[in-house]
From TrEMBL, chain A:
Topology term for the membrane: Multi-pass membrane protein
Locations listed in the record: Cell membrane
Name this polypeptide is given: Raffinose/stachyose/melibiose transport system permease protein
Chief localisation class: membrane
Cross-referenced PANTHER family: ABC TRANSPORTER PERMEASE PROTEIN, INNER MEMBRANE ABC TRANSPORTER PERMEASE PROTEIN YCJO
Keyword terms: Cell membrane, Membrane, Transmembrane, Transmembrane helix, Transport
Record's keyword annotation contains Calcium: no
Residue ranges of domain ABC transmembrane type-1 in the record: 74-290
Transmembrane parts of this sequence: 15-35, 78-99, 111-134, 165-188, 222-243, 269-289
Family note: Belongs to the binding-protein-dependent transport system permease family.
TrEMBL record, chain B:
Organism: Planomicrobium stackebrandtii
Signal recorded as keyword: yes
Protein name: Raffinose/stachyose/melibiose transport system substrate-binding protein
UniProt keyword annotations, A-Z: Signal, Transport
Family classification: Belongs to the bacterial solute-binding protein 1 family.
Signal sequence interval, chain numbering: 1-19
InterPro entries: Bact_solute-bd_prot1, SBP, SBP_1_CS
Upper lineage: Bacteria, Bacillati, Bacillota, Bacilli, Bacillales
Domain of life: Bacteria
């Protein structure tokens, strides 16, 4: 009898481990091993053609420090992050508050769908679409500017070194705002209605309610969304790759596009891996800072 | 939640790296005992896609024991995919390849079949292929590819516009600039255009310009990645010339691609465009301008070859592990009959003797064909001629030059450093 009980106890101890095992296995195979392998690869010089790898130590990282294109790309990524936080996180929060307001109760579901549609369209399709919008000869944007008498502002958006990165960023904002808005709407719906009622009785206006109730109550969601947009901005690849391929020159290069071009276009797999390591370090730092600052993980 | 999200994004990123490392088994015979040949080309667009689909069908009917699996992706994607495939065991049995450094890179993987024996064994077939076109596929006296299409680059001009404005065909670079000025004065805001978002278009310009202004011996030294230096003052002069030419291209050129530029030419909006002979038929189909062409003019004081034609063949390569039936299919693809059909359908000229005649091409193409086969020498495309890292400096530099972000001297400095890195 005692034996049996002990076996059950032991089996019980095994069960949690068994539950974790599949996810650990997947994480290991698809994330940790490639991560380590990528770090390992960045110490070698090789191309996809070469049957052997040549050990070069830290030279790829040395090259990384002196590479002007990496600097341009990093700055572009940071621009991407700042603009995304302003437009996606801040603006989406306002949008979500408006949509959840009593005034819009009737048409809010329809608007939610409209804002969410871009999220469901494939990024390649969107990029092709925006190529037409930005087209200097027959593009919608320049035609519109001319129509309203601002023809002198019309430039070849993607072909101009100063505007190209902003044109790319603008497209991302249009696409992603619906997603972040949706996340905020869910958070706002969880706020107890009593708070707003009490505020109303106390005579607080809509704006005061937004700052004193909505924002503190969705703080958690705010941090999550900021984390998503910032890490997303550091990894952005599809948009610049399809719209401009980093050009003209290197003016709209981002780290991921540069990594890809080094690895697969210029045959420097080792250097490409070093860029990938840099991307990992940058995103990891941002993630750590945000987790630390927001103090999540502790349920309130 | 956040962690998994963060990780899943990372996973996406890393999976591109992972893709390079996978490998798979081989298959040569399928269940019903048929020999399978994997065929990979780069024309998912018409008319070539249908052309090859037809030819494959025809071949399989003639050879019932062979089954051909075909796959295709477009130009730039093809370059990338082949690079990945050649590093794995999944290299297709027969596939299309550019010449020179592109071919050399593939050959360095040691997975490409040397074709010397095949060429010697069947003289009846191989003697029909124009000899001069083999150069770009031959490394250390071993031939790794069979050239199929031939091409060259020249300025196409709108005959009507030139006549109206009394412009002679320029024979020197200064005359070209004078002609452009004259056209601009006549109301053409952009007498010349190019789709500079396509970096290869820049490399075609630069390749030809360097060919004209730099001593051939210096070029040969710099095109070899072991000895490349790029210190000749001709390069700065060449980049300045390119910069001067882009000033005639208007603001749009950095935002459009070559196809858009070609359509502008075909619509008569732009009177001069630097184009490949392979595009003759496309221009004819897109508009009804009457056009002629002239070679990139001589540069006064240039140390290079004033008449060298820029253009390189494209051809077929065979994997080392391909079943022997592949060779027969290769001969079928490069036979006189297939080649004649091909040029008739597509308009691009081919390297098979007797397969380009008055019957299957228009007079303009025939004129181009004679220009190609009679050229004093042919220079490969610049991005195929030099190491890709150096080519990229020039190509992106060309874009930055056109948008006024850099100077010829800075580009050259960067190119020198990159050339040093490649040694």
């Amino acid at each position: 009898m005692k034996e049996g009980a002990r076996m059950i106890a032991r089996r019980n101890r095994m069960i949690p481990a068994l539950f974790i095992l599949p996810s650990l296995l997947f994480l290991g195979i698809f994330i940790y091993i490639p991560l380590v392998q990528n770090f390992y690869n960045s110490f070698f010089d090789f191309s996809v053609f070469s049957p052997t790898k040549e050990y070069v130590g830290f030279s790829a990282f040395q090259q990384l420090l002196g590479d002007k294109v990496v600097m341009t790309a990093l700055i572009n990524n940071i621009k991407y992050a700042i603009i995304s936080v302003i437009f996606q996180v801040a603006f989406a929060l306002i949008l979500a508050t408006i949509l959840e307001d009593k005034l819009f109760r009737r048409i809010a579901p329809m608007l939610r769908v409209i804002y969410f549609i871009p999220v469901m369209i494939s990024i390649s399709v969107i990029a092709l679409l925006f190529n037409f919008i930005y087209n200097p000869q027959m593009g919608l944007l320049n035609s519109f500017l001319e129509l309203v008498g601002l023809g002198n502002l019309a430039v070849p958006w993607l072909g101009n070194a100063t505007t190209s990165i902003y044109a790319v960023i603008a497209m991302s904002q249009w696409q992603s705002i619906g997603f972040i808005t949706m996340l905020f709407i869910v958070a706002i719906q969880k706020i107890p209605k009593e708070l707003y009622e009490a505020a109303n009785i106390d005579g607080a206006g809509k704006i005061r309610q937004f700052f004193s109730i909505t924002i503190p109550q969705v703080k958690e969601a705010l941090f999550v969304n900021m984390l998503i947009t910032i890490t997303g901005s550091m990894l952005v690849f599809n948009e610049p790759y399809i719209l401009t391929n980093g050009g003209p020159g290197t003016s709209s290069m981002t780290l991921s596009v540069y990594m890809y071009q080094q690895g697969f276009f210029k045959d420097n797999m080792g250097y490409g891996s070093a860029v990938a390591t840099l991307i990992f370090v940058v995103t990891a730092i941002f993630a750590l800072i945000q987790i630390k600052v927001s103090g999540t993980g502790k349920d309130e | 939640m956040k962690k998994t999200l963060c990780f899943s994004i990372l996973l996406l990123l890393l999976s591109t790296l992972l893709a390079a490392c996978n490998s798979g088994g081989e298959q040569s015979a399928n269940a019903d005992g048929k020999v399978e040949i994997d065929f990979f080309h780069r024309w998912p667009n018409e008319p070539r896609k249908s052309f090859y689909d037809e030819k494959i069908k025809e071949y399989m009917e003639q050879n019932p024991d062979v089954h051909i699996n075909v796959d295709y992706v477009l130009n730039d994607a093809y370059k990338e995919k082949v690079r990945v495939l050649v590093s794995s065991d999944e290299l297709p049995d027969i596939f299309t390849a550019w010449s020179d450094s592109f071919a050399e890179n593939l050959v360095s993987s040691e997975r490409i079949m040397p074709l010397n024996d095949v060429i010697q064994e069947d003289e009846e077939w191989s003697s029909k292929i124009i000899d001069s076109q083999f150069g770009g596929f031959t490394f250390d006296d071993t031939t790794y590819g069979i050239p199929f299409t031939v091409d060259g680059k020249a300025f196409f001009y709108n005959k009507a516009v030139f006549e109206e404005n009394n412009i002679e065909i320029p024979t020197t670079y200064d005359e070209l600039i004078a002609a452009l000025d004259k056209l601009q004065a006549a109301g053409f805001e952009q007498p010349l255009v190019e789709g500079l978002t396509n970096t290869w278009a820049i490399s075609h310009y630069l390749g030809t310009i360097f060919e004209r202004v730099v001593d051939p011996a210096v070029l040969e030294k710099d095109y070899n990645s072991e000895t490349a230096e790029f210190t000749d003052p001709g390069y700065v002069q060449g980049l300045e010339m390119f910069n001067e030419l882009t000033s005639y291209m208007g603001e749009v050129s950095t935002a459009i691609d070559h196809e858009a530029a070609r359509n502008m030419f075909a619509a008569g909006e732009v009177p001069i465009l630097y184009m490949q002979f392979a595009e003759i038929k496309m221009v004819e189909e897109a508009g009804d301008v009457e056009f002629g062409f002239f070679d990139f003019p001589e540069v006064e004081g240039g140390k290079g070859d004033p008449t060298a034609l820029t253009g390189a063949p494209e051809g077929w390569m065979v994997s080392k592990n391909a079943p022997e039936e592949t060779i027969d299919f290769l001969k079928f693809l490069t036979s006189e009959e297939t080649a004649a059909d091909f040029t008739k359908t597509d308009g691009q000229l081919n390297a098979i003797e007797g397969a380009v005649t008055e019957e299957n091409v228009n007079p303009a193409s025939l004129e181009a064909y004679e220009l190609i086969t009679n050229a004093s020498s042919t220079a490969p495309w610049f991005d195929n001629a030099v190491n890709i890292n150096v080519a990229d400096v020039f190509m992106r530099g060309g874009q930055s030059l056109a948008t006024g972000q850099t100077t010829p001297e800075d580009i050259l400095k960067e190119a020198q450093q990159e050339a040093e890195n490649q040694k």
